[in-house]
Write a structure and sequence with these properties.
The structure is a homodimer.
Chain A lengths: L2 H10 L5 H11 L10 H6 L4 H8 L3 H14 L1 E5 L7 H4 L7 E6 L8 E5 L6 H16 L3 E4 L5 H11 L4 E4 L13 H9 L1 E5 L11 H11 L3 E4 L7 H11 L3 E4 L10 H8 L3 E2 L3 H7 L2 H13 L13 H9 L7 H8 L3 H13 L3 E4 L3 E4 L2
Parallel strand pairs in A: 3-4, 3-7, 4-5, 5-6, 7-8, 8-9
Antiparallel strand pairs in A: 1-2, 2-6, 10-11
Chain lengths: 368, 368
């Protein structure tokens, strides 16, 4: 098999996670060796049974069809070993080995806020979702959601209206985005952001795919903002996953007479941050600092002889903790004692400033 | 001076607190000795200067006028040394030495929920305040508030509409309840609950009286529920005092577009309990337990030979901690390790069951 076909075989391996691919790469010398590996080699790896079976005898015709589809639609397969694989996603325990991406791959590694909510919002909820997303996009955040009807769609629309980028994570193959009502929106997202899925083309939007999809929405993002959600709602699953992944959870309160505020109120009871304004989110994520640092940059060049503009204390701590050997966000959280979302957003700042570089597996290292 | 005039002299002593009266009673043999005490005796007591000056030379004409007013209007002066002095209020550090009470004194020692909010509520906020208060009154809680226009008035009205009792705590003398618009409401509260003030008749509703008044609203109550409040609002002072006094703070969320929800959202950020329904409050206050215990009482008489109906574990712990020597709520909190509002509500249950008795100074002791 050629390289691209090997990658396509790996991408199709059911349930294959980033950590499986890392282990395989270490054992076999390189990740690509996993496609077409011998039965003995595969047996020695701790892989999901279905993935092992597929990798032992991948369906060549199917892979060939995938390749043609990829080329025709400009879809990329992004493996966790690639430098562009989103570092925040790489930091979660069950990150997928590969993502199918249609659109701008770089959007995935940009600072994202996930916004999710009910498919049946109130008029006010829909307006708020749109307005919040537009403001976040203007502030430079990528808005990530699930392309569902209702709040999800309003968030994508708002981000695009704000002149920003949006990412839609699907629970089906990228060949047939679900729901069909949002096919036009999906095209516009692919043109200003990205459509993302871990499911290969041809995967139907099965109910059981969505909780798994939700971990990617939160995993890609610095935090999850729930705008309106009923008490039992997929949005609450996304929020719970975000909490487990160490990401911020935000909720917009509402009238006690609005059933679609119940889910948000339940999250607030569990400790979610209450959001009245866009700034509430930016402050909690440490992003005013991001904007401030960036806006200082062109006006205040480093003084002669100085290594660079003076850094705030947490940035100094973080840079001190970073060596020239790439380190993951988890490791940096351990080393610095700083909260995980702060570390993530500070790394983005430092990367934008050209002080640090992003390495495969979502790890960072100093450049100078 | 006669006894009643001595009490009236003590009640008028500016800034005299319950703890001052206790110290004086211990030093002089009995609390009444404070009125007309010698300059030397007064000098030996740690009293506020204004109180000392007044007690040294009380204005007999004024006291006589107070006496006539008390008799004409059926107002009682309730000293902290009286058995009816509300035990929850006695537990706060700056409990007043005396209260003027018009109406049913026993209401003061009943389980109360304070409900407060803005003078300029939304239509929905006013409706919610009324509906919540009516339900609390039906559940047996006395609703305590400040007689202000807006939310306060709606809460008093709701409690009365629910066939329950209400307490209005004033920041002026009981001779001229403020605001005059609520004079009719004040009369109805005096007939089904009580009007309460620590300020003597003739005291104008000065701005500076209200924060001081607010500590009584929270101090009398198991918790404070804020229905609607602007970001800068007297209701937030009451909520803060409630927190300092170890009482529960509750807030009703609302639309992010309603300026009168801002105060509630600020409280929720600070850890107040989010309230969507009446049950949210009753559960947090342990009062479903109160209702359950009471409803068991008539149907399930104690078995022959048993000391009484079986008690839940926290009640057993509390009864074990109670001796025949009266103990304050603070002491019982120390002895049992149970949270203060729970101890307070359990004591009310045990008193209603006839297991314990209320003693002067808000202290409790076992009866058998």
């Amino acid at each position: 098999m050629e390289t691209v076909e090997r990658w396509l075989a790996i991408a199709r391996a059911p349930g294959l996670l980033a950590r499986h691919l890392c282990v395989a790469a270490a054992a076999l010398g390189e990740p690509l060796a996993l496609a077409g590996a011998s039965a003995a080699d595969l047996a020695a790896l701790e892989l999901p049974e279905a993935a092992r079976r597929w990798l032992h005898a991948p369906d060549r015709a199917r892979i060939e069809a995938d390749r043609r589809w990829l080329e025709a639609r400009g879809v990329r397969v992004l493996a966790c070993t690639a430098a562009e694989y989103p570092p925040l996603l790489a930091a979660i325990e069950d990150a997928p080995a590969c993502l199918y991406v249609r659109g701008e791959v770089a959007a995935l590694a940009s600072a994202q806020l996930a916004m999710v909510g009910t498919r049946e919002p109130s008029a006010a909820g829909r307006r708020d979702a749109y307005a919040f997303a537009r403001h976040f996009a203007r502030a430079g955040l990528v808005v990530t959601s699930g392309l569902a009807l209702g709040i999800d769609a309003a968030c994508h629309e708002g981000a695009l209206a704000g002149g920003g980028r949006s990412i839609a994570v699907l629970g089906c193959g990228l060949d047939a985005p679900y729901p069909p009502e949002n096919a036009g929106l999906a095209e516009r997202i692919a043109a200003a952001g990205a459509l993302v899925s871990e499911f290969p083309p041809g995967t139907a939007p099965l109910k059981e795919n969505f909780p798994r999809r939700n971990r990617l929405i939160s995993g890609l993002s610095l935090g999850v903002l729930v705008v309106e959600a009923a008490r039992r709602s997929g949005s609450l699953i996304t929020a719970r996953l975000a909490g487990n992944q160490g990401r911020e959870v935000f909720a917009v309160p509402g009238s006690i007479h609005n059933p679609m505020s119940r889910g948000c109120h339940a999250l607030l009871r569990q400790g979610a941050s209450l959001v009245e304004t866009v700034d509430d989110v930016l402050e909690e994520l440490n992003l005013p600092l991001l904007k401030q640092e960036l806006s200082h940059q062109p006006d205040h060049p480093p003084e002669a002889g100085a290594a660079g503009p003076a850094l705030d204390k947490p940035y100094e701590i973080l840079l001190d903790a970073l060596g020239f050997e790439p380190a993951s966000i988890d490791v940096l959280v351990d080393r610095t004692g700083l909260p995980s979302p702060s570390v993530a957003s500070m790394l983005l700042v430092l990367e934008l400033e050209g002080r640090i570089g992003l390495h495969p597996g979502g790890r960072y290292a100093r450049l100078a």
